[in-house]
Design brief:
The complex is a heterodimer of chains A (about 325) and B (about 500).
Chain A lengths: L1 H17 L12 E5 L6 H17 L3 E5 L6 H7 L8 E7 L1 H8 L10 E16 L7 H10 L5 E5 L4 H13 L4 E5 L1 H10 L5 E5 H7 L3 E6 L24 E8 L5 H16 L1 H9 L3 E5 L4 H18 L5
Parallel strand pairs in A: 1-2, 1-3, 5-6, 5-7
Antiparallel strand pairs in A: 3-9, 4-7, 4-8, 4-9, 4-10
Chain B lengths: L2 H7 L2 H19 L5 H12 L4 H26 L8 H12 L3 H36 L2 H18 L4 H15 L2 E2 L6 E2 L13 H19 L16 H10 L1 H16 L5 H14 L12 H25 L5 H12 L6 H5 L3 H34 L2 H20 L2 H19 L4 H27 L3 H6 L2 H33 L1
Helix pairs in contact in B: 1-16, 2-4, 2-16, 3-4, 3-14, 4-5, 4-6, 4-13, 4-14, 4-16, 5-6, 5-13, 6-10, 6-11, 6-13, 6-16, 7-8, 7-12, 7-19, 7-21, 8-19, 9-17, 9-18, 9-19, 11-12, 11-13, 12-13, 17-18
The chains are: A alpha/beta (about 325), B mainly alpha (about 500).
């Protein structure tokens, strides 16, 4: 019986995974899309948003699976051992893939990853609760100046986008705040809503998800986010901060140039879809189009900036 | 919350989906390594082409079925099918050993259904106010909660506290291996790539619980479980009587499960352990927890199924997933265009209510489905010859461990831990304290680091650690759990001394 159960389950899983195997358009069979994190985070949600559009446009299923561990390192270290036939892709995240290998040997190097598209970023934002005394960014700065170190700010992880943003902003505004790292954005937001901390270093996506429960003080974008027309950018307030956590896609390094080009086009095509764009914007994301060709310039520029920030902050030697 | 939503949950399609979901979930949950998160994640794309409410009902049914299914392997093989079923092994396996496996499986089913209903009802009627529990729990409360969980080691390691504590400490050290969750440091890997992902809980569970059982199965000539020769009538009625007799235990454990489920940092394993510990502390004198006491199963199984409804509370009200499967479902909801948050409940949110009714229906359907599958599972595990059982289960442990994240490192770690567990088991070190340390270590560590950071920043360390009412209550419960055994022995001794004096 037990064996029968196993067999049945295996069969069920296989069927579930291969439904819609029939037609083969751009790719041969369902595509395995590995997220090197657990479910529910920004990487997962943006992948889930891509999923139906991929199926619509290319007739194939996109199976999202999770391979968490080591803050993404486990997945990225395994990527180049996978088949490069274009049936397996993996999500990649900045600054993670730049900072982690620079800190220690984590089994992969930044340049080992065959990144072919960056499709969005979640702009950094300072989030406070709706009933917070901080009405504006200046209120927070004033409090931090009057009480150095006493303004506690939650964020996701250390040496992460949130943490780098906190370090950078503290320096620009000449203030000292205390960064409290949490496991993922969800936990960091829970700490904010529960008044365990005074503010959160999060993303525009937090504002989209929490709606009226929170207030964004500023966002790190060139222009205001369409979802938050009343929230100023850091730039408007005199702080040259644009950026956040960037997310993209990578293939195993054994993938041919042709496959890489094909995938770069697929990602671009999904990103062009007006309905997809709207869904991403509603979710608080900011779209980005860095294709395979522009990737090396983009990566070089980001690497230089991240490493400089991290070095100054003492996160890497 | 009107009749219309209830009726739209009651469509034939939704009922079929709930039935299929519960059955599939039960089977998946019973296989160590195949978790509820995985099952739900694989099925999310299928739900894109469905009505949002139907999709949610299917996912919720799989989830609740999987949490119950975890009890089978716990009872019949001493291996928790899901981390939520850890405490089910404590009494479930001893019951199966003495030939009461069928009874244990049926009791687990009744308790799971009851707990599931309490959790779902709390979700239906009390979600917005209860979601505040998730916010009231700050880092320090998580720290004390994990200390409370660790105090369970004292009562788990009968007569050998030192070995239990050593096991717990070892588990906590194991939990620090690899890339640290929040500080991103890489610790104790000794340069090895195999260890960089650390010791995963599910892999460790399989290794520490299942491998020793397999080795023992091969090492001793007896049958796996005691087989009754006489054909017995189904023991459903007996199970129902036993379960219902423990009304208070059922209710207490379900409430604990619901509340712990609401906490995003805890989950089914912690709920089961806390409920077990409370049931044990409130035991009558004739009850022997750890030796096949039905109340142990009732406590664990009702509380872990209550976490399903409880976990949906912060997921739907705050947009903060209570458990990993909730996180997957939250993603599916977002794709469907459903925005979570307080307004979801206030503005009628008919989809939410249809879903909650669907979850209730699925939970009720779990009773017949669970009893039926449970009976077959029991019969086949008992009847199957060892020559087939051992290789089949051995194969399963490897596949299951690999499937967690397609990592061969996890398999190596699982087997090494298993052999290690068997060896130290010969010297009286049990698996459970190690697993407790492994699960609770990171919660304790994160809570401590965050509390310390906040306390140091605001120059209020003592206030942060000891000044908050919820944490004070948890500390009090911890002390009670730790001191109670000593107190009762002392009382016992005084009684006999008095009797002797007379």
């Amino acid at each position: 019986m037990l064996r029968r159960i196993i067999l049945k389950t295996v069969a069920a899983v296989t069927i579930a995974a291969s439904t819609g195997l029939a037609a083969s358009a751009q790719t041969a069979g369902p595509v395995n899309y590995i997220i090197p994190f657990g479910p529910g985070g920004e990487s997962d949600i943006s992948a889930r948003l891509q999923q139906p559009f991929f199926k619509d446009k290319f007739g194939q299923d996109m199976v999202v699976s999770y391979q968490p561990g080591g803050g993404g390192a486990v997945g990225w270290a395994s990527l180049n051992g996978l088949n490069g036939d274009g049936q397996t892709i993996m999500g990649i995240n900045l600054p993670h893939i730049i900072i982690k290998p620079a800190q220690k040997d984590v089994g992969f190097k930044t340049e080992d990853l065959n990144a072919f598209y960056m499709f969005h970023y979640t702009p950094d934002a300072i989030v406070v609760t709706a009933d917070s005394p901080y009405q504006t960014l200046q209120d927070l700065i004033d409090d931090a100046k009057a009480n150095p170190g006493q303004v506690t700010m939650s964020g996701s992880g250390k040496a992460s986008a949130n943490h780098l943003a906190q370090i950078k902003f503290d320096k620009m505004a000449e203030i000292k705040t205390t960064y409290v790292p949490f496991k993922g954005t969800g936990a960091a937001v829970a700490a904010l809503l529960g008044n365990q901390v005074k503010a959160e270093w999060g993303y525009t996506t937090v504002g989209a998800k929490q709606g009226e429960a929170v207030r964004l003080l500023a966002v790190a974008m060139d222009e205001r986010h369409p979802l938050f027309p009343d929230v100023p950018t850091f730039k408007e307030l005199g702080f040259d901060m644009v950026g956040g956590a960037y997310r993209g896609l990578a293939l195993p390094s054994s993938a041919s140039e042709e496959t890489t080009k094909k995938w770069s086009d697929i990602a671009a095509e999904i990103n062009k879809d007006p309905e997809f764009r709207q869904k991403m914007i509603d979710g608080g994301f900011a779209l980005l189009d860095i294709d395979a060709e522009g990737m090396s310039d983009f990566m070089a520029e980001r690497t230089e900036e991240y490493l400089k920030d991290a070095r100054e902050a003492g996160l890497i030697k | 919350m009107d009749l219309g939503n209830f009726l739209s949950a009651l469509t034939p399609l939704n009922i079929v989906l709930a039935l299929l979901g519960v059955a599939a979930g039960t089977v998946i949950g019973s296989i160590p390594g195949l978790t509820a998160t995985m099952a739900v994640a694989v099925l999310v794309p299928i739900t894109f082409s469905m009505e949002p409410a139907s999709a949610l009902i299917l996912l919720g049914a799989i989830y609740t079925g999987a949490i119950y299914g975890g009890a089978y392997a716990a009872i019949l093989l001493n291996t928790p099918g899901t981390p939520s079923a850890i405490a089910t092994t404590f009494d479930g396996y001893p019951m199966a050993k003495r030939g009461d496996g069928d009874l244990a499986v049926a009791i687990a089913c009744f308790a799971s259904v009851f707990g599931g209903l309490i959790g779902a009802l709390a979700l239906l009627f009390l979600a917005p106010p209860l979601s505040q529990v998730a916010l009231a729990f700050g880092p320090i409360e998580y720290f004390w909660l994990s200390v409370f969980g660790l105090s369970l080691i004292a009562s788990l390691s009968k007569g050998n506290l030192l070995k239990g504590l050593a096991g717990g400490a070892f588990g906590m050290i194991l939990s620090t291996v690899g890339v640290a969750e929040i500080s991103a440091d890489i610790r104790l890997t000794f340069g090895s790539q195999t260890l960089i992902a650390g010791f995963g809980v599910v892999g460790a569970l399989i290794g520490l619980y299942c491998i020793p059982v397999l080795i023992d199965l091969v090492a001793v000539p007896d049958r796996h479980l005691k087989m009754e020769n006489d054909v017995r009538s189904v023991r459903i009625r007996e199970a129902a009587q036993i379960t219902l007799k423990s009304k208070f235990n059922l209710l207490r454990s379900s409430v604990i499960g619901t509340l712990v489920g609401i906490l995003p940092g805890a989950g089914g394993s912690v709920a089961g352990l806390v409920a077990y510990s409370e049931a044990k502390r409130n035991a009558r004198e004739d009850q022997k927890f750890g030796e096949g006491e039905a109340d142990g199963i009732i406590a664990t199984e009702s509380s872990n199924n209550a976490t399903v409804g409880g976990g949906f509370i912060p997921t739907l009200v705050l947009g903060i997933p209570g458990t990993p499967p909730d996180a997957v479902i939250l993603g599916a909801l977002l794709v469907q265009g459903v925005r979570t948050g307080p307004t979801l409940f206030q503005s009628g949110g008919s989809i939410v209510y249809t879903f909650i009714y669907g979850l209730l229906i699925a939970t009720i359907l779990m009773l017949p489905v669970g009893l039926l599958i449970g009976r077959y599972a029991y019969k086949s595990i008992v009847a199957i010859p060892k020559a087939i059982l051992v290789p089949a289960v051995g194969f399963m442990t490897i596949i299951g461990t690999f499937a967690i994240r397609n990592s061969i490192s996890d398999v190596i770690i699982m087997i090494c831990l298993g052999v290690f567990g068997w060896i130290v088991g010969r010297f009286g070190f049990a698996a459970s304290p190690i697993v407790l340390g492994l699960i609770l270590g990171p919660i304790a560590e994160q809570g401590f680091v965050q509390s310390w950071t906040i306390g140091a920043a605001t120059n209020n360390l003592a206030g942060v650690f000891f000044g908050r009412p919820i944490s004070q209550a948890i500390v009090a419960f911890t002390l009670l759990t730790l001191l109670y055994p000593a107190f009762s022995t002392w009382k016992q001794r005084r009684k006999t001394a008095k009797a002797g004096a007379n």
